[in-house]
Amino acid sequence: MSDTLLQIAYIVLPVFGLMGLGLGSAWTGYLSESVGEALGDFVFLVALPLLLFRTLATAEMPDQSPWPLWISYFGGLAVAWIVADQMIRRMFGRDFKAGVIAGVSAGFSNAVLFGVPLVFTAFGEAGAVPLLLVVAVQLPVMMTVGTILIEQAARRDGSHMGPISLRSIAGSVAYNLIRNPLIIGVLAGLAWRFAAFPYDGIPAVIVDRLSAAALPCALFALGMSLRRYGIRGHVLPGVLLAGLKLIVMPAIVWLLVAKVFGLPPLWTTVVTVVSACPTGVNAWLIANRFRTGHAIAANTISISAAASLLTMSFWLAVLGV
Fold first, then answer.
1. Residue 270: its pLDDT value, please?
2. Is the pTM of the predicted complex or chain greater than 0.90?
3. Are the C-beta atoms of residues 182 and 112 closer than 8 Å to each other?
4. What angle do CA 41, 46, 51 make, to 5 degrees?
5. Fold of 2-318
6. How far apart are CA 7 and CA 271, in angstroms?
């Protein structure tokens, strides 16, 4: 028992320690907000895309269909989203647009800035394939579904009376995705792999060294960004949404991957861990884009990040890591 707790501590505490250092440096003013933004840009534009590229270009690909993993992950996400939407509208009397933001906040895992460092710390590159299957698909699916539902919610709330143009939405989402550095890193890694190009020499050394900076810098930048969100307004919705994100969603995902589809143990563990990650900052970006639900998104991001120290330790123990 003590060995298990020690192993979990070695996984979890460095992750939250780096986040805490980032938050502390921003909170005290030791580093300015512009430094955090620059570090976040480096992680998002350079380090993480190179890490994804390197991993996909060199990782061992098992003969395993991704569909059971995707069905399990998005099945748990859908349940959390629906419950969150109904709860915000029925318990707190918010409009349909706020319900969509609540759904995004309860279902959008921070799989990149939090999940990638955590999975690589816990499992090394052995956990990369199931992790990247989630990372590569979550953003396109969530952006597409979120945009369509927000447009529909605006019509139901009476703030937008025009027809929904699926072609316009699809074009906008596709344009944003093909410009997304993470998607570019994934596609470039797959292309490199299928072309059977060698991964060696000085270029490989440069990529390795830059990608090695991705994990600590991502956590530090994430910690600094939490200073921006904070806690605001009515806190209870954020607490309930964080509970959906950290407990309900991973529980359903685990039941599906382990009991329904019987995926390999490593895949089961990794996808459950990713589903148990705190809410991603994309919830705030979507709220900001559509000018609604700012407090819902900000509170859920902050509360889930703080509470995940305990809940992630719980899930790692349950999964036998």
1. 97
2. no
3. yes
4. 125
5. Na+/H+ antiporter like fold (1.20.1530)
6. 19
